[in-house]
Structures are given as structure tokens and as C-alpha cells.
Design brief:
It is a single chain. By secondary structure, this protein is α+β, with helices and mostly antiparallel strands. The chain has three domains: about 5-85, Phosphatidylinositol 3-kinase Catalytic Subunit, Chain A, domain 1 (Ubiquitin-like (UB roll), Roll), CATH 3.10.20.90; about 95-255, Fumarase C, Chain B, domain 1 (Orthogonal Bundle), CATH 1.10.275.10; about 260-590, Fumarase/aspartase (Central domain) (Fumarase C, Chain A, domain 2), CATH 1.20.200. It is about 50% helix and about 10% strand. The strands form four sheets. A five-stranded mixed β-sheet has the order 2-1-5-3-4, covered by helices on one side. The two termini are about 25 Å apart.
Length: about 600
Amino acid sequence: MPRYTVHVRGEWLAVPCQDAQLTVGWLGREAVRRYIKNKPDNGGFASVDDARFLVRRCKGLGLLDNEDPLDVALEDNEFVEVVHRLRWGRSDHRGPGQLGQGTLQNQVVYGITTGFGKFARTVIPVSKLEELQFNLVRSHSSGVGKPLIPERCRMLLALRINVLAKGYSGISLETLKQVIEVFNASCLPYVPEKGTVGASGDLAPLSHLALGLIGEGKMWSPKSGWADAKYVLAAHGLKPIVLKPKEGLALINGTQMITSLGCEAVERASAIARQADIVAALTLEVLKGTTKAFDTDIHAVRPHRGQVEVAFRFRSLLDSDHHPSEIAESHRFCDRVQDAYTLRCCPQVHGVANDTIAFVKNIITTEINSATDNPMVFASRGETISGGNFHGEYPAKALDYLAIGVHELAAISERRIERLCNPSLSELPAFLVAEGGLNSGFMIAHCTAAALVSENKALCHPSSVDSLSTSAATEDHVSMGGWAARKALRVIEHVEQVLAIELLAACQGIEFLRPLKTTTPLEKVYDLVRSVVRPWIKDRFMAPDIEAAHRLLVEQKVWEVAAPYIEKYRMEHIPESRPVSPTAFSLEFLHRKSSNIPESEDL
């Protein structure tokens, strides 16, 4: 009998299926039914029929059609997740129509019946309230620079929808539905990457986003490519949005430019941080280092979470009792007492990078799930209140910190590359090539790594320590979070590239230690690299090799190869991590691989 493992609100449920012709929708409803059955309060649902959901795979996060038969859509024992779907008509969702004509005629409400910024005291006639919103979007669309790539623009739009759906922005359900239809059609406005100061929100980029929604400016879709927004919308059967009072402001006021780039930065930082441990472990093997510095007791007396985890990963990859290493055995009785800091202190240096990422991830996760509009519409109180949730200081500071923390992975990696290339330190041929002099080997690859590290040092200067007064001193303190996010991504890309060079250098070093072999997981990493980059016999065009190794890291291929060995070692050496059921290991491993998206408390 086929069975499936379904994730519902943080819980995993095994759902057997007697009839494989049943649908994906049935599987979702049955999982929700079982979830409700185990909850004294029905898990917050009146009934199964009260749940509105989509179903997606845990691996790859692909959405499934609820009408597809299970035997066609899924394999036996596949892992899926039930995801909340927005229900229209929430009682607390207050749009401009619900504000009431009394509000529009008799009250002064910022952004609804007044101008903006310095013009906040200028009252606008009711007859011109819609014109006010269009003027706002057009005038604020003043960004410069290259447009966001489609993936980043799509994330920007998704995060803005998430804010609007919370019901505090004063946007109508009709308009919100139109925005979601544009998103689902992948119609993405032209959004220049420069122009935000990060308060009052990311006004310029979000205005460009809104400009496309009203059918002006440029837009891109897979169907049309770049074209006039009005044409792109029409090509997908969509109409430009007609803004009602408050809706222009609702579309452009928030920190979504900072956080959309910030989400990507956190995910890429997480990926490269864990792969940095694998690359460094391979270098340690090539340089014939000792694993004593990763002893459990050393890290138990300084139990920073990241440090402990990095030391564990090194042990899981290098433990000769678990994974015999001929290289390690060859120098077991050498006279070396301890290794250089770049090898010995990896848990401490890599560890704090991991803890930094976790800290920043928490802030960004809170930020993307917050209402960051102004003014805020509180339906339960019948009030519209001006506040400062649009200010980007939280994500700006966090992303500055992320750049500083992750950069150190490149700084220490560059020093390990130096040790690999320097014959007096590595006991290997100079620059890891035979016939040195005739061949230069990794000489300039190391220079490239040094250049990237040096550039990062300038990029790591915090942008959020700067502030310039804007809007005639009305908006007199800003976060500069947009630049914090953009430069964090640049820093992380440089870190990836430096570690790609180290990965190539370490694999090249292995060539000079043959026929000796390293541990099984590290041999798998070596085989992965050799599947895209051949050994360096004599000088050749190196840039494509670096790019190929970089691609392995960006796509997390190095982690995918090593992770099963790390998790198996964890189960065998940490009792509390052992599974309570045969599926628990696979389940946990899949959960960790699924883009590290935080579990939602909501269905």
C-alpha cells in the first residue's frame, strides 16, 4: 500500500493510501484531518473544509495540482508539504472602500487625504484622491541603474503581496487579487536596482514595481520578454490596476527591496558557509593536518553553537576510524605538534560565520512577515495611524553584519590557498603544477583570490552607519539598507569564488599525493570536481575551471555529495539525533535541503 509523509504546521504525518487513483487534494485533506484529530482545539480549524491549501514537494518545492492522481504525481513514500492559501474576504482586511466616505471627507489621514513627506500638511480634495495615488507612483519611479533580474523582481513582488495580504495597508481585495494575478503570470516590472535610502521604505524601487502594475513603464514576462507594461499585461489577459485612495502608497511603502535581496543573501550565505567546511577539510587533508583540534571536548568547553557544529562536520569528514584515510595514515607519526591557525581555528572562524547567518536569518524572517506600511489601517480599532514600520534599520544593520561575518570565510580561505601554493608550507610543487617556471599553475588564481578578499574589505564597511536627511528634513534619518543588501550579495559572491579557487587547488594537491586516498566523503567531493574540471597537467585557460567550481558551490553540489555522510555520522555519534522511525532521517535530511525556509506556524 503506498504511503506518503505530509508536513502540516510543523508536524509530519504518515498517510497511507489504499487507492492510488485518489488525488493530491485528497492527500492534503486527509493530512489536515489527521492533524486536526490530534489537536484538542482542532488546530484552529472549524473543520477540514475550513482549510484552504496547496500541496508541494519537499524536495524542490514544486507545487502539485490538487486534481492529479497520486500514482501519477508522486512516488511511494514521497515527502510533501501542505501550504496555506490566502482566503479572500477576511473580515480584518480593510481597503479604501471600507475606510468609508466619512473618513475621506471629514478627516485628515496621511497619504489618503494629504500629500506625502514635506507635503503631509497639504490636504487634497476628495475629487483628486485617485489622481494623488497615480501621481505618487509616477513621481517616485526615479531609480537608476540596471534592472533587477526576473528572479529578484519576482521575490520583490511576492514579499510586497505578503505585506498587503496582512490587511493593514488599506488596499482593496480587488486590487490585491489583481496584483496576485500579475505575479502568477510572471509579469515583472522594470525595477532599477539603485535609488532607495531604506526609509520611508524602498520608495523608488517599489514605485517602479507599482508603475508596471498600472500599465506604465516596462515589464518582462517569459511570454513577451521586455516590452511596454500595458502590452505585457494585455498579452496575459490582464488589465492595468486602477488605483483607489491609499493604494498607490500601499504599493510602495515598505522594506521589500532590502529584504528580497536579503533573503537571497541569507540563503546563499548559508549554502557557502556549510560548504566552506567541506572545502577546508579537503585542504587540511592535502596539507597533512591533524584532526585533534576538532576534538569534542575542546568545543564542549566553549560551546558556541556554530563552532560546535563546524567542529562536528570536520570530524564527520575526517574521522579515520569512521572513514579510513591513507593520507592521514601516512603522517600519523610525524613530528608536527599543531597546525597553522587557518586549519586549526576553522571551527572558531567558520563557526561565528554560521552563527551570524542564523542571527541575520531570524531578523530577515521577522521582517518579511511584518506589516511595514505607513499609515497602518487597524480595522478592529477603526483607526488609521502613522508610524515608522517602513524604516529599514533592522534589515540594513543585519545585512551589514552578514557581509562582515561571511567575508571571513574568504579571508581564511585565501590564506589556505597560500599554504597550498607555497612549497615551503605545503611540501607540494610550487603553485601545484609540474615543471614550474615553464608552467605557472595556480600562481595568478591565488592573486585573484587575494583581489576578491581585498575588495570585500571595502565592501564590508557598513552602509547603515550613514544617513542623509531627505524630503526637506521630514525624513531626516534613513537606513541605506538597499546598498547594505546589494553589497552583501557582492561579498557573498566573492566568498563563493574564493572558495571555488580553494576547492580547485585542494583537488589539484590531491594529484600529488596519489596513489594515497583521502576519506570516502572527501573522495566523493574530489570525484565531483573532476567530473567538471580535469587535473592540471600543464598551463591552460583557467577562468572556465574557476567558473565550473563556482557553479558547483552555487548549486550546492558539494554539500549534496558530502551531506549524507555528515548526517549518518551525526546519527551514529549523537544519540539524541537518532531517528525514532525508519523515515525520520530521510525526513530531516529533506527538510534541511529544502532551501532552509523557516517553518510557518500557519497552514
